[in-house]
């Protein structure tokens, strides 16, 4: 069952059906980065059950609540075997925001799981590069819509 017949929300440039969808539907992620990308895609699609399930059992919350934001784009800064540094842009309450996080992952059984992360969230400046990845400034991109 394909959820989205278009490019993957994670920004890989691949079709969703061959990128994050199989992982969201239960396939094991081949790497921590692939799991992180699938979690970003799940946030954009509102797949809250998957987000909770993809959390490591040692740190998993009792539930994952929907957010009121619109996700704009994902940029991977650096990935290692068990960590991923990324920047994700989102719109919330009319403001363009950036989430800069370094996430840690650990294996649980045959699956990678999100363990925890250190993050910084702040409003994107008008003259900053837009966090959607367009290459334009915020004032000429996502803040106009």
UniProtKB/TrEMBL annotation:
Gene3D superfamilies: 3.10.450.50
Residue span, YchJ-like middle NTF2-like domain: 31-117
A Pfam family: SEC-C
Protein name as annotated: YchJ-like middle NTF2-like domain-containing protein
